[in-house]
Design a protein that fits this description.
By secondary structure, this protein is mainly beta. The protein is built from one helix and 38 strands. A 13-stranded mixed sheet has the order 9-10-11-12-13-14-15-16-17-18-19-20-21, with no helix packed on it. Strands 28, 30, 31, 33, 34 and 36 form a six-stranded antiparallel sheet that branches. The longest helix has 18 residues.
């Protein structure tokens, strides 16, 4: 009996050796090993192959001789500090690792989406200290770099990007700390960066040309587009600092400093601010289209320009204009300047320059105005150039037409009147003498303000000789108010003596 079994086994081994292909459940194997089910259409629950089952990976790793060896892990275990779920694994001797090739929604990320995930447990990423790269069309579209740093804040990498064609290939050098600590979000953000560091770009084409610049912050489509090597710029807004490749500019607002190329250290805030500035530096522009046409340096504008293309932006339209570069430096208010609230306890400055020698005075109610100082008050004396005959109809103006002195040129000899330039209080002094009269008629002298009598001196003449009358008064005059001297006479043949010591008209401002 033993001999028969030995002979049978010999024939089976010989047959395998001759055929080189084995068929189980079939007579025509199509591979080295071809196993058929009991019924392909309605298989039994035993139709299949059982791979060796293990509850844990071998304590001693397989060798190259076992490359590709297949097992089925029945429990969750840890291998090489990585948790391994139940499933099929094969030995990869090149990486000395058990590689799982199971694919279920509970253990792998599926391109059609996953179900049953648990926040805080399931995640997409690594559990070893390796950077992560995402690509689109085989071009980098996302990157998460090593965040670790030392006590001096020297980073191992520190770069982060998300967006197609953004921060494609920075030249990272840990020793020199170049090419590190950059952040890019958006399409085509910092695609050309090499050794630049500490840059932040958000928005399509932000910092598009950047290569070696340091410490730039760009927020907005195409902001700092042309900046390749410049440092420490801040651009917020679409097309802000688009053309610039110079240092220390800050532009906030749509198209702010859009055409600046080599100008540096400018600060702007507002729509189209400093729009045409190309080479100007150290400017401060605040407001819509503020400093739109300014091409110089060291200028200050606080302005609201409303015309298309900023055509009304100018040094005279700006609410506040200044020049940091002039000597002395200047600041100008093109409007009414108020200190505090004039309706409460503050005051307001006048908007006109006043006249030479005037001083600023307050009305005690928040208003201020220019007023003459005592050294600049009106002082006038006039006489007649010739004797003046009087009519008999009563009041008539004396024709003073010869100016002795007039400190502010306020006496009009063609109308024989004093016209006040400034409001204030004035003292009027006048007098006349007639030729010799022998009657007791009624004679008077009067001060007329704006064509109406203000004050008079009157009386009857007695005795033989000239008639003389004088008058003195204090009067308030607003600017452009006028004063004239009148005489009252009803006697024929009366003449005013033109002698300067007898007939005169004087005005003196006292406040």
């Amino acid at each position: 009996m033993k001999i028969k079994k030995i002979v049978g086994l010999f024939f089976i081994i010989s047959w395998f050796s001759i055929k080189a292909q084995v068929g189980i459940g079939n007579t025509s194997p199509n591979a080295q090993l071809d196993i058929s089910s009991s019924n392909q259409a309605t298989p039994a629950n035993t139709d299949g192959i059982l791979i060796p089952k293990i509850n844990a990976f071998p304590a001693t790793n397989p060798t190259a001789s076992q490359q590709g060896m297949l097992v089925y892990l029945t429990t969750t275990v840890t291998f090489a500090a990585v948790s391994r779920s139940p499933g099929f694994y094969y030995w990869d001797n090149g990486t000395t690792n058990w590689i799982g090739f199971q694919n279920t929604s509970s253990t792998d990320w599926n391109i059609l989406g996953n179900t049953g995930t648990i926040a805080g447990t399931n995640f997409f990423g690594t559990i070893d200290n390796k950077d992560i790269t995402f690509k689109r069309f085989n071009i980098r579209a996302g990157y998460i770099g090593d965040p670790f740093y030392d006590a001096s804040y020297n980073f191992n990498n520190g770069n982060t990007s998300f967006g197609a064609n953004s921060m494609k290939n920075p030249t990272v050098n840990i020793g020199t700390q170049t090419g590190v600590r950059n952040t890019a979000f958006g399409t085509n953000v910092m695609p050309a960066i090499s050794t630049g560091k500490l840059n932040t770009g958000i928005g399509e084409f932000a910092l598009f040309s950047l290569s070696s610049g340091i410490g730039n912050t760009s927020l907005g489509s195409a902001s700092l587009f042309s900046n390749s090597t410049a440092n420490s710029n801040v651009a917020v807004g679409r097309n802000t600092l688009t053309s610039s490749n110079s240092d220390n500019n800050t532009g906030i607002g749509f198209a702010s400093l859009k055409n600046t190329t080599s100008g540096a250290s400018n600060t702007t805030l507002g729509y189209n601010t400093g729009y045409l500035n190309s080479t100007g530096s150290y400017n401060v522009f605040i407001g819509s289209q503020d400093g739109y046409n300014e091409g110089g340096s060291n200028k200050l504008y606080i302005e609201k320009s409303t015309a298309a293309n900023g055509t009304d932006s100018s040094v005279d339209n700006a609410l506040i204009y200044g020049d940091f570069g002039s000597s002395p430096r200047i600041v100008r208010a093109n409007g009414q300047l108020q200190v505090g609230n004039p309706t409460v306890s503050g005051y307001v400055f006048p908007t006109i320059r006043g006249n030479s020698g005037q001083m600023l005075q307050t009305d005690g109610a928040g208003g201020t105005s220019w007023a003459d100082s005592a050294s600049n008050f009106s002082i006038v004396r006039t006489n007649l150039s010739a004797n003046q005959g009087l009519g008999t109809g009563g009041w008539q103006k004396l024709n003073f037409n010869t100016v002795v002195f007039d400190t502010k040129s306020e006496f009009n000899t063609s109308t024989n009147r004093f016209v006040a330039t400034n409001a204030g209080y004035y003292e009027i002094n006048a007098g006349f003498h007639t030729d010799s009269q022998n009657n007791n008629q009624y004679y008077s002298i009067a001060i007329y303000k704006n064509g109406s009598e203000y004050q008079e001196t009157t009386g009857n003449h007695t005795n033989l000789g000239p008639v003389y009358r004088t008058i003195n008064a204090i009067i308030y005059l607003a600017a452009t108010d006028y004063v004239e001297i009148y005489a009252q006479n009803y006697q024929s043949g009366v003449n005013i003596d033109s002698y300067s010591g007898k007939t005169f008209f004087e005005v003196r401002q006292i406040k």
